[in-house]
Fold each of these.
Amino acid sequence: MGDVVAKLADADTLAQSFPERLLGIFISPAGTLADVARKPGFVAPLIALVLGTIAVTEAVLWKIGPERIMRMTFEQSRRASSMSPEQMDQAVRQGAPIGAIFMHIIGVVGAPIALLIVAGLGLLIVNLIFGAQAKFKTVFSLICYAKLVSLLGSLMAVAVIVFGDPDHVNAQNPVPANVGFFVNPLAVSKPIYTLASFADIFTLWFLILAAIGLAEGGGRRTQGQAFVDLPGLRGFLGDLDFGNGWSVHARVIRLQREWAVAPGEKDKANS
């Protein structure tokens, strides 16, 4: 009887507005996520995250430019030593327009796709592993609101990019949120730089909030248990983190580095 009365009381309680939830995710995350679990909604936070990603992407393309980004990509690739200056210039001219288009597209669709996948994983953890009966809308809403902390990182990234020296801004890691920010990627090996850039503050912050949100969304059965899967979820997000604004162009740059082929090398390989 008491549970029924509590549910009826929750149904009559007005949900917080988006500005209240946005502020609450920073100052009172547990209460905010409980409110989201009670009355889910994902449109407003998803739009905010997409706008944050677009802001960072456009700042990078405007201040640093696709040509400079592409040149940095080739310089950090293993093929840089085998490329002549003429080959480097030709590769930059050919790759810059494609890279810019790719960054524009990923800037719009990257965050929604990544968050949908993460929410699906969260739903799997909550329902199949912990035996809850959460709905996808609830879990997706909780993941979107937990990810709002990355907006702070996006604002920092835009400030660093806009007011910094474009020749010294690392487009792949512009925010001082991990050790990799303070490391010159050209001075250390790729594995060391990747390890230094692996765990950033905003991703760990998001994971903690996501665990709290999943516990709220799953009910009492998942209270305190969602944190068990944090290491595995962090590993999964290591390769799927388009929710952070600066991660979008970082992933694109890494893909470009893997695909970077000096002009003429394909012909040599085919001959």
Amino acid sequence: MKKLKQKAYSLLQKISKGKVTTYKILAEVAGKPKNWRQIGKILSQNPYSQNYADDTQTNADSRRKSALGQRQSAICVPCYKVVKSNGEIGGYNCGKIAKKKALQKDGIIVLNNKIKDFKKHLFNNFPALGGSASG
């Protein structure tokens, strides 16, 4: 699972502003096409995500700060850019409101927890990963 986590985090950093991908696409590109739920679990534990909610601190924020030793990390893994295959925004370790705000900050319109013009914003042109696809 550690290799899959590293691949997922690496892939997420390649997604351009205004684009999203799906759990399924991320799993496929990481070489584990049937493990999209595992991708979701990995992202739910992402210590490098950002909270885009207004000044509200969530339990995830507390855990993340604790995991990072209260220091700011230079690494940002934008897991808010991963959505369901039907365009629904899905979950986020900082909450759906924060995910929606992060997507909107990227210029993506979210209506009723679904991305407007989903296909237009879908990113699936990931560069090839080096090394083995197993993880």
Amino acid sequence: MTLILYLSYITYRYPLVDTVDGIPVRNLVWDKTRGKHVRRSRARDRGRFIRGPIPLEWLIAVTQLRGKAAVLVALAICYAVGVRGAHRDISVSNELVGIFGLSRYAKRRALEQMATAGLIILKQEGKSAPRVTIVFKRDRLTRRPV
């Protein structure tokens, strides 16, 4: 019933017009609080998330390291991989690990543990944020950490 009233209102108010103020009629909805038609919201705020796939063997190997900082740094790296879209030369900044509640000192210890275990290749140049490359299981057999 409301749809029929809505369509009749639109055709009465704007006969033979498929746009209202430049907005297509199909993208308009009635806002009760404002008392007028407004643009339909298409985008949703989905928040931040870790994009997959995350190599399970790699993540299990990270959980075997001492402390929880290594796991949180690994999750931060996976988050950065999803944002950047590449597994090489990922910048692990203090701001990035701060999302997970880690200090720069815990980040450094965890990155060194992961590099020693052969899970990542760690590159540190001066005082800039360390850059890492994820080393997957098949690569760990042939590569050694730098």
